[in-house]
Design a protein that fits this description.
Layout: E1 4-7, H1 14-20, E2 27-33, E3 36-41, H2 46-52, E4 57-60, H3 61-64, H4 72-86, E5 91-94, H5 100-108, E6 112-115, H6 121-125, H7 129-155, E7 157-158, E8 164-166, E9 169-170, H8 173-186, E10 189-190, E11 195-197, E12 218-223, E13 226-227, E14 236-241, H9 247-266, H10 273-286, E15 290-291, E16 304-305, E17 310-312, E18 319-323, E19 335-338, E20 341-344, E21 348-351, E22 354-359, E23 362-365
Helix pairs in contact: 4-5, 7-8, 9-10
Length: 379
């Protein structure tokens, strides 16, 4: 097999992190054999790389023969070519996520480049006990931030126009997200994005949230933090209502929780992700709702699920495997979300999401929070 070459795309580069076990702004990674790899870094990241990386050799780029150029990608590509030539190598595998400019720079330097479309696919989806613990801890952080948000909602009061106020000012999505971010930061986690979306805007599943939160209507809280040291994610969603719960919202929530329970009961090593997704769709249709999955459309005019049932979680918040209308057998070691949701324009949405690990005999749920619409049940 051809050697592997990776150029770091920054701290969000999951492939580079998985290969080298360190996140760096600028670096070159070469793996010739499983126990023969080289990490080349800038001087100011050298100590961190030597402390965290598991590469057999970690060197400063100056020591490796770096030549300064105006074109930094070209300089990294030339350095890679020289290091490969020292080993009598001219052809490499690269990540399919490498930016086009870096790909071109490598080719122009004379390296024969092959895109490895399956790079780390199987390895990253099967979590080791250490990786699973990192995700479980991140899920705990998501729960702490979610409870922080729900606590503020529970303490708020409705104004005459139906908006929620707390401590003399409107309770907004922005205010709630800021408090959630602070709660995460205090325990070593961060979320570049999250969802705290009130109604009716939360009928859009990926609407992040903006403006005042309203009483007597669903609020979707979806938090997917990353560990600042582990770099592994959690993913959690709860829906709550401050005040009176509309009958339709309660029925929607009950249907989502029933679908979530059914999916979790099905998940085990060897079960097809498609079967889990279709079971969720069937349950929602049986409850009088619809989906966008062929053959399970249900009522197209009422609330419906417009997304997949779940996805893998790890160094990226969305990764393999998938629980959708796609043939995808689950394997022991997969860590996945299960997140049934229903949405109706003008009303809002409901989504309930747990994250856990596929085991030989079932599903190890990393999530411990209640699944209640009542904020008081979380406090």
């Amino acid at each position: 097999m051809k050697p592997l070459l990776l150029l770091s795309r920054g701290s969000e580069d999951a492939d580079f992190r998985y290969a080298s076990r360190v996140s760096l702004e600028e670096a070159l990674y070469l793996r010739f054999e499983p126990a023969d790899d080289l990490l080349v870094v800038t001087g100011f990241e050298l100590d961190q790389a030597r402390r965290e990386s598991r590469a057999t050799r970690v060197v400063d780029r100056g020591e490796a023969g770096w030549t300064e150029q105006q074109d930094r990608l070209g300089a990294w590509a030339d350095l890679a070519r020289r290091l490969l030539a020292d080993r009598g190598v001219s052809a490499v595998r690269i990540s399919p996520l490498l930016p086009a400019a870096a790909y071109e720079a490598l080719r122009q330097s004379g390296i024969d480049v092959e895109i490895d479309h399956g790079l780390f696919h199987d390895e990253r989806r099967r979590k080791s006990p250490e990786e699973a613990e990192c995700v479980r801890a991140a899920q705990g952080a998501a729960e702490a931030a979610c409870v922080e948000v729900i606590g503020l909602l529970a303490a708020a009061e409705a104004a005459g126009d139906g908006t929620l106020w707390l401590e003399g000012s409107p309770l907004t999505s922005e205010r709630l997200m800021a408090r959630a971010q602070a709660a995460l930061n205090e325990i070593g986690y961060a979320a570049s994005e999250m969802i705290v979306a009130g109604s009716p805007e939360c009928a859009q599943p990926h609407f992040r949230g903006a403006g005042a939160i309203r009483a007597n209507a669903p609020v979707i809280i979806d938090i997917f933090p990353r560990g600042t040291s582990s770099h592994y994610h959690g993913d959690l969603t709860r829906t709550v209502v401050v005040g009176e719960v509309p009958d339709e919202v309660r029925r929607m929530h009950d249907a989502c929780v029933a679908a979530l329970d059914e999916a979790i009961a099905m998940i085990a090593d060897g079960v097809n992700g498609r079967d889990v997704h279709l079971a969720v769709c069937r349950r929602l249709v049986e409850r009088g709702y619809g989906t966008v999955t062929a053959g399970h459309e249900g009522d197209p005019a009422g609330p419906r699920m417009t997304h997949s049932t779940g996805h893998g979680v790890g160094l990226e918040v969305h990764e393999a495997p998938h629980l959708r209308d796609l043939d995808y057998p689950l394997r022991a070691g997969d860590v996945v979300t299960v997140e049934p949701g229903l949405y109706l324009a003008g009303l809002g949405g409901v989504r309930v999401e747990d994250t856990g690990m596929v085991m030989a005999g079932g599903f190890r749920n990393f999530t411990t929070l209640p699944r209640s619409l009542d904020p008081a049940d979380y406090l």
